[in-house]
Specification:
The chain has helices spanning 32-45, 53-66, 77-87, 102-110, 129-135, 155-165, 216-225, 247-278, 306-309, 313-322, 353-359, 373-388, 390-401; strands at residues 70-74, 93-96, 114-117, 140-144, 168-172, 180-181, 184-185, 192-196, 209-213, 230-232, 235-236, 284-286, 293-294, 300-304, 362-365. With 402 residues, the protein is an alpha/beta fold. It folds into two domains: 2-27 and 261-401, Aspartate Aminotransferase, domain 1 (Alpha-Beta Complex); 32-255, Type I PLP-dependent aspartate aminotransferase-like (Major domain) (Aspartate Aminotransferase, domain 2, 3-Layer(aba) Sandwich). The strands form four sheets. The protein has a seven-stranded mixed β-sheet, with helices on both faces. Helix 3 packs across helix 7. The longest helix has 32 residues, at 247-278. The mean pLDDT is 97. Bound molecules: pyridoxal-5'-phosphate (PLP).
């Protein structure tokens, strides 16, 4: 940090910390030679989609890496969620978190099910088992927890509730690639888990996703559902969709598997630098993870306590933007605030006090495999400078908003 400590924040007229925008993430670009060698195979075979060789190879390698019985690839994580819910044959209500990306809840509603929002835990920011327990009724058929920012949901407690009430348990593991809890891979919990391989994710296929699990009957059903429900030339069964991953998308994944291992390592180290430096600043907190969890460093989320930090989360976001540091207010607004869901009784603010508090205080900072450690130090220095000048920064932002 050194000389940067005395820096004048850009909102107060100082030089922006970065000359060009530093985004909160940057997609990992596959090695061109390796990618091309896979794409050559695709071009030679002229087999671009429909259960191609590369999709099958990536499914095998991911099942192995993720420590699961099967991996069924999809065109994106949302299609994977849609099919996973469909094959579990649910009805009525599904308990889920409002502190997630829109797709989690949309997939429930697109299946004709009613999402029921439950509050989250103030430390892990994941579904609170007590709230899940209290919301379960005779019309509940499933729980869809999310491992938010890669931090595992309350696995044992949720499993207990699901077992006791015979509810399906589908984890949205979009953020949790490569996460382990003790010896157990994150995808080994629940009936099924869904990953997103969108370009912004730790491991990606540009667009893509997967459902993983252990029951071969569910695997067969998922394979049908992602291909319109086509059983054979003369039979189409059920409400299938086109959820197939293409061969070129699978080529991206195959070309990125090794780089992802290096990225996890590097991201964890960068996250540790952030946590150590920012942890010393009054009013900045972090998401709590259990000690036995091996995280993946996929996000760097901080929580701002306005009274202690001197500014609220939105003010810090805007002050950082002036420094050319682009942070993200994940997941604000909550999904329960979406006009599609806000009429639901469970979407009432009084039902979700902790989720509302967390959503108004969390900010995701730049973190990606190629991010230089020096840039992490500069982001930290900018935050420290903004914190030290908090009253003047607040006045300047309020003035600018008038
Ligand atoms: C928690 C969560 N669930 C589902 C999705 C949907 O995945 P996709 O973008 O691959 O459709 C995402 C992100 O994109 C996500 O963050």
């Amino acid at each position: 940090m050194g000389s940067n400590q005395a820096k004048t924040p850009a909102v107060l007229g100082g030089e922006p910390e970065f000359a060009t925008p530093l985004y909160y993430t940057r997609a990992r670009v596959p090695d061109r030679g390796v990618f091309d060698s896979y794409v050559d195979r695709v071009f030679e075979s002229a087999w671009f989609t429909n259960d191609g060789e590369l999709v099958r190879e990536l499914e095998r390698r991911l099942a192995d890496r993720l420590g699961v019985g099967f991996c069924c690839l999809f065109a994106n994580g949302t299609a994977a969620l849609l099919a996973a819910l469909k094959c579990l044959d649910l009805d009525g209500q599904v308990l889920t978190t409002p502190f997630t990306f829109a797709a989690t809840v949309h997939a429930i509603a697109w299946n004709g099910l009613e999402p029921v929002f439950c509050d989250i835990d103030r430390d892990t920011w994941n579904l609170a088992p007590d709230a899940v327990q209290a919301a379960a009724t005779d019309t509940t058929s499933a729980i869809v927890p999310v491992h938010v920012f890669g931090v595992p949901a309350a696995l044992a407690n949720l499993e207990r509730i699901a077992k006791r009430r015979s509810l399906a348990l589908l984890y949205d593991a979009a953020h949790a690639f490569d996460v382990r809890v003790g010896e157990a891979p994150i995808g080994s919990f629940g009936d099924l888990s869904v990953f997103s391989f969108h370009a912004t994710k730790l491991f990606h296929t540009m667009e893509g996703g997967a459902v993983v699990g252990s029951d071969p009957a569910l695997r067969d059903e998922l394979a049908l559902l992602r291909n319109f429900g086509i059983v054979n030339e003369e039979e189409v069964r059920g409400l299938g969709i086109n959820g197939k991953m293409s061969e070129v998308h699978a080529a991206t994944g195959l070309a990125l598997l090794e780089a992802t291992t290096r990225d996890v390592d590097r991201r964890r180290r960068l996250a540790a630098i952030y946590e150590q430096s920012l942890g010393a600043i009054d009013g900045i907190g972090f998401q709590r993870t259990a000690d036995d969890t091996a995280g993946n460093g996929s996000y760097l989320a901080i929580r701002i306590e306005p009274e202690r930090f001197g500014l609220d989360r939105n003010q810090l976001h805007d002050a950082l933007r002036a420094e050319n540091i682009v942070s993200r207010k994940y997941f604000y607004p909550l999904c329960s605030e979406n006009e599609a869901y806000r009429h639901l009784p469970s979407a009432a603010r009084e039902n979700l006090p902790i989720a509302h508090a967390v959503a108004s205080e969390v900010l995701c900072l730049p973190l990606f495999g190629d991010l230089p450690a020096d840039d992490v130090e500069r982001v930290v220095a900018a935050i420290l400078a903004i914190h030290r000048a908090a009253p003047a920064v607040r006045r300047a932002l309020e003035e600018a908003a008038r």
